[in-house]
Every structure is written in structure tokens, then in C-alpha cells.
Amino acid sequence: MTSNPEPEPPTYVFEKPYIDDHRFLFAFPNEKKTPSARQIQLRRLYDILNLSLRRDDLVRATRAWSILARCKETNWKAMWTLGITLLENNVRVLESNPRKIDYLRTMLLQLPEERERILVELAQHYIHAGRHRDALDELEFYLPSFPYHDNPVLHVYAGLLCIFIAQPPEPVGGNDIEEATYDSNLLSRAQIFLERAKALDPDNIVAREFLHKLHSLSQEPTLRSFASHDSEDETHSKGYQSPQPKRRRSNS
Questions:
Q1: Contacts 24+ apart (CB under 8 A), 92-95
Q2: Where do Basic and acidic residues bias regions lie (predicted)?
């Protein structure tokens, strides 16, 4: 007598396969393939932050940022570009203010992997604020060291700032300044910066064209300004001042 084998019990599936049915508007830093419920909430909050900025709702964006910055899953330093936007008075108007400059100088020390981009941004904000001498001092402080020394964009900025500051002061009250010339020391420094930029990036048209301008200026018997500008820099409002000494690195 043969016995019929008992049927095998059905296999029960206690865990359903993960289906990503969540839709987010913005890419989240350090995104995971299978986010937890907390990760999903953080993603939603990140979307609220970006949407609020685009709607010029700085109050709501600041609240979202303050929550995200306190979460251990969020690297707030990596979101430094959003942080500087929150310091705007109006996100639709590009401007600079002392808080932004202080923030960027702090991030320059806190985020080493982004320091070249941050230094470029810092130089731009100095220029927007009319603080051209401070921008040049900041660049000259970092350019001799690695990795800034191999960045052609930073050398171009330094060269153009030297040319800008080297220009003679504009006449005050309509009186022409006789024999107004460029500062030859600053022009020599500009040439060094631009030649370095051209060596690093031979196709850099800005470095090439301004080197040609410098060569043309050196051939003229009387140097004259080739760029008209309106500046709030104290170099032009009070007349030319000798270059300030560079900052020294602290031993601490």
C-alpha cells in the first residue's frame, strides 16, 4: 500500500519587495536606493527648502534649513550653495553683504574638498561689494599653495584685479590728472598671474586677450586707461594707495 505524500505547505512571503513610488523634485545629497521613512521625510523637507527659495519665501526656507542642518543624516556643509542663498535679502537680486563674505570665509576652512569653488565665489562677492583690494589680497594669500596654484580661473581673477586696481584714479570734479599712468608694479603682477593661467589653460581666451592688452600698454609712451568703470572701491574714491601687506598665516 502506497501512501500519498503530504502536500508541501505554501510559502508565505512576509516582506513585500520595495517599490519606489515616491516622487521627489530635487536630488538629495547622499541619496539611498531604499530610503527609510525618515529619509523620505528628509527628502520632502529638502523639496520644501528648494521650492521656498524659488518662490522667494525666505522665512519658510530658513525653517526647513534649520531642521535639515540639525539632522545627522544631512551634511549641511555640502549644501553651502543653498546656505549662501539663504543670506540674501531677495533671492531674485544678486548682491553681496558682509554676512555672505564671513560665511564663505568660514566654509573655506570647513569644507576642504570644495575650497577652490568657494574661493572663486568669495572673490566674486568681494568684487560685487566693491572691495577689489580685499579680493586681490585673499587670492594672493591662497594662490601660492596647493591646490589653488594649479587653478587657472583663480589666476585670471587675480590678474584682472591687478589691472583694475592699477588704473589711475578718475578725475574728481572734471579736472584731468596730468600724466596719469598705471601702477607698473601691479601691471607686472597681473602679467605673472595671466601667464600662469595661460600656461595651465592654453585655450583661455581671457588670459590671452588681456596679456595682449598688457603688451600694447607697455608699448605706449603714455599709459592710459582702456576700461571705463564705475567703482565704489576706496582705491578710486580716495586716489591710489600703495598695496597693503599680505596677511601672514598664523602658527596656530
A1: 92/56, 94/128, 95/128
A2: 227-237
